[in-house]
Write a structure and sequence with these properties.
It is built from 5 helices and 2 strands; from the N terminus they run αααααββ. By secondary structure, the protein is mainly alpha-helical. It has a two-stranded antiparallel sheet. It starts with a helix and ends with a strand. About 5% of the residues have low confidence.
Length: about 190
């Protein structure tokens, strides 16, 4: 029994000395660490007029505010939306004029292109439909124009938002040696 205890003690002390030796070899002094260079922060200083400039440029010429912000990929989207709105306005206006002219000819007693196919009340309903579609096209086009301006303004604001290592949120995973459970958490770090 004493032989087993001595063997166990020798093994324990051997493993303990090896583990302690490894910890000592892992310990690094501050002189051995590479010196951190103090570097300038690479973000631009805050420009209070940048959002107003971007919005103004987009109001003057749609897409110019996006170019000012450097988001060139948004310019075709803005022109595509505006072009689509204008296209549907012109298409509905042409159809409205066609049905309006036929309605006027019918009231004047002249022949029209829809004679025998569409009733007078059908011509009135068609005019109302295309008039409504024209108004919706105008609203969509104006909405896309305003969205273009708002997008340029918001993006200019967000480009100046400071995101660096001084403020970070990191998940925290801690193992509790006494209870054997893992503690989860969230750490907010703010350095001055």
């Amino acid at each position: 029994m004493k032989l087993k205890f001595n063997f166990f003690l020798i093994c324990f002390l051997g493993f303990f000395s090896i583990a302690t030796g490894q910890q000592d070899s892992l310990a690094v002094t501050s002189e051995q660490l590479p010196k951190e260079e103090t570097k300038e922060k690479d973000y631009e200083p805050y420009n209070a007029l940048a959002p107003a400039k971007a919005a103004f440029y987009s109001a003057i010429l749609p897409g110019l505010g996006q170019a000012y912000n450097g988001s060139y990929w948004k310019i075709p989207i803005a022109y595509g939306g505006l072009g689509t709105g204008v296209y549907f306005y012109l298409k509905n206006d042409k159809e409205y004029d066609k049905y309006r002219e036929a309605y006027k000819n019918r009231l004047a007693g002249r022949p029209d292109q829809f004679e025998g196919r569409i009733t007078t009340s059908g011509l009135i309903r068609a005019q109302e439909l295309f008039q409504k579609n024209k108004e919706i096209s105008i609203l969509v086009t104006v909405g896309i124009y305003i969205l273009n301006i708002v997008d340029a303004n918001v993006e200019a604001h967000l480009r100046q938002f400071n995101v660096d290592e001084d403020l970070s949120v990191q998940p925290n995973l801690d193992f509790d040696a006494l209870s054997g459970k893992t503690n989860y958490g969230l750490t907010l770090n703010y350095r001055f």
